[in-house]
């Protein structure tokens, strides 16, 4: 359908409908991270935030107060693992938040089954299940197709199929995907081209977030204390994850933020403070002794 250019010039356009800043309803986004960093936990926590209207602990600054339907298709982890994660998240939820999550969130374990988003029948099923929804999460993307990840043409086809689901459902589709081995090896996980496979996979997505483990250099230059006099110990740095946005077609990219993982795997936003070069040098040997365990 041709756009009315004159009307576009003269009429005030409707406000864009963002699921969260940068991720527009009806479009496709991606979350890229190495295995074991916590992207599935992040996605589940975000799903609960959307389903509770942002009242649950918020990892991404939702800016919403309306509970909305979310479908989480978990093709990698079995139901027992998902129940453990939900139980861990539930410890931090109020009774009203648990009720909202139970009403608006559907977590569907499909590990071991075959769902192919290139199949019109399977796409129709996803759209049907997410009718009236806000967000569809696919965890992880490789479990939802049988195409060649290294083929630009095939990954472009895959993104078109996901865009079809997003458009018909009126929801944002977020797929989880692994970083490339070279991205992990060479330390550029926080770049748009760090995703495993063909570049068209992310080129065609409208939003791309990433999760990166804290490096040793970052642990030496950051502190959990406002005075910035105690660097994060090398063994404890594995608990800290940096989240950022490497691609955002609609709006300015936000600043990176830090999360800290507890023993259950739950991610919590945390503020870290820089250590001045003088303090970093002065405390280097002391920190090695203080935090050797």
Instruction: Tell me the strand percentage band.
Output: 15-25%
Number of helices: 10
Structural category: alpha/beta
As for the CATH topology, it is: Rossmann fold
pLDDT averaged over residues: 90
Number of domains: 1
Low-confidence stretches: 279-293
Spatial sequence of strands, sheet with the most strands: 5-4-6-7-3-8-10-11-12
What's the overall geometry? Answer: globular
In short:
With 293 residues, the protein is α/β, with parallel strands linked by helices. The model is unreliable at 279-293 (pLDDT under 50). It has 10 helices and 13 strands.
Outline the structure in words.
This protein is of the alpha/beta class and 293 residues long. It has one domain (17-214, 237-271): 3-Layer(aba) Sandwich (Rossmann fold), CATH 3.40.50. Helices cover 34% and strands 22% of the residues. It has 10 helices and 13 strands. The protein has a 9-stranded mixed β-sheet with strand order 5-4-6-7-3-8-10-11-12, sandwiched between helices. A two-stranded antiparallel sheet has the order 1-2. Strands 9-13 form a two-stranded antiparallel ribbon. A hairpin with an 8-residue loop joins strand 10 (240-248) and strand 11 (257-261). It is globular and about 65 Å long. The model is unreliable at 279-293 (pLDDT under 50).
């Amino acid at each position: 359908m041709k756009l009315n250019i004159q009307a576009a010039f003269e009429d005030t356009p409707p406000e864009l409908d963002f699921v969260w800043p940068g991720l527009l309803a009806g479009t496709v986004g991606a979350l890229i991270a190495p295995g074991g960093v916590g992207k599935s936990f992040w996605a589940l926590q975000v799903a609960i935030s959307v389903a509770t209207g942002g009242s649950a602990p918020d990892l991404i600054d939702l800016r919403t107060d309306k509970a909305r339907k979310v479908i989480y298709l978990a093709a990698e982890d079995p139901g027992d693992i998902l129940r453990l994660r939900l139980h861990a998240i539930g410890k931090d939820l109020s009774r009203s938040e648990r009720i909202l999550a139970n009403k608006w969130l559907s977590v569907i374990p499909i590990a071991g089954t075959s769902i192919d988003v290139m199949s019109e029948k399977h796409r129709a099923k996803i759209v049907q299940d997410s009718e009236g929804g806000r967000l569809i999460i696919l965890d992880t993307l490789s479990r939802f197709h049988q195409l060649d990840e290294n083929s630009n043409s095939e990954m472009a086809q895959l993104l078109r199929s996901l865009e079809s689901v997003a458009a018909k459902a009126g929801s944002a589709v977020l797929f989880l995907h692994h970083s490339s081995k070279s991205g992990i090896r060479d330390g550029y996980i926080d770049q748009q081209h760090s995703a495993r496979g063909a570049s068209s996979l992310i080129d065609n997505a409208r939003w791309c977030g990433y999760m990166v483990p804290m490096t040793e250099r970052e642990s030496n230059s950051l502190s959990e204390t406002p005075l910035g006099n105690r660097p994060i110990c090398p063994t404890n740095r594995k608990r800290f994850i940096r989240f950022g946005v490497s691609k955002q077609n609609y709006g300015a990219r936000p600043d990176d933020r830090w999360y800290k993982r507890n023993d259950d795997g739950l991610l919590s936003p945390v503020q870290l403070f820089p250590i001045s070069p003088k303090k970093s040098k002065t405390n280097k040997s002391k920190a090695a002794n203080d935090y050797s365990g």
